[in-house]
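user: Here is a favour to ask of a fellow structure person. I have my own habits and do not want them to colour yours. Could you put it straight underneath, so I can go through it closely?

assistant:
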Amino acid sequence: MKKLIMVKYAELTTKKDNRSFFINTLEKNIKKALENYNIEIKKDYFRMFIIPSEDDINEVLNILKNIFGIHALSLCYFTTDKSLDNIYELSKCVIKENTTFKVETNRSDKTFEIKSMELSRLVGSYLLKNVNNLKVDVHNPVVTVNIEVRKEGVYVYGLDIKGKGGYPTGTLGKALLMLSGGIDSIVAGYQMMKRGVTLDFVYFESLPHTSLEARQKVIDLAKVLKKYGNTGKLYIVPFTKIQESIYKDLDNTYMITIMRRMMYRIAERLIKRKKINAIVNGESVGQVASQTLTSMKVVNNVTNYPILRPLSSFDKLEIIEIAKQIGTYDISILPYEDCCTIFVPPHPVINPDLTHAIKEEEKFDFSLIDDAVKNIFIIDLNKEETSDLL
């Protein structure tokens, strides 16, 4: 008998010709996440089986729970001995006393002499006689004893452990996340990773108005996503002169609108150089003045790249709940301001006019954008302390 972990694929079942690519990427991500463990992986079109050492099973399960592309995990018992007595013994391993249960059998090996329904009946009868205080409940059991009879042997497993679902990270290209240090943007990044997207990050820094602690906060947030399968680069943009110029010379009510337009101009230059496919942010429709549909339209005008807003229909409480679940909330609420929270006008425009925004920008020295791009500072999140200019 072997004890192993059965991986059930998530939305990969919707893929046809590309399914092998998604499965192979999931395997690669799992190997990366478990690189410090001695494991064996076997996979087919429907399942993946991970065989760790028995001492590591619980740790490996906890890591796998955070990998996108997995619908569910099951602690599974396997044997090449297909005798009925052996199947009985395996079935006892996945059930406890004082519970309700049912047995389901999948017999893909048609040379096995006992048909699925009959095997389920036999195993159920055996468990009722040999495990204390069991009751059959075919509609809503606490435990389902699953038996899969395949050519290579028999797999028996019980309760599923829920996975993260979605697509394996890295199957659907790369995007640049505008990471502010607040609650929303990092949650938006997590949501995009769930759709198979790999992330790099951009942070707009306004020293000395913002602090090095605020930068470290952003680094720490980006590194949290590593356990979900993402380790990219963080691009730190020196934004001070741009922000001061906007504050000093342009219409105060349009400050946030124009500031964000400048951010997207810089982000576009960055993703063109790095062959990134889209920009991601943490905006939620109507949450603040700069997140009205009119504001989004005016800001979007400066780039032809897709701007993805995975939180657009989420309310704040929903976003906070996800942040707590993924382990970013306590970092996000640390009291270090980012550039979006300084120089905030008392009455920012809610429905900006594109013509007026363009006219205001005629007063702006666009060479400041050139300077900012030249001095972008890069932190490779795969390494502890590696940084360089773009």
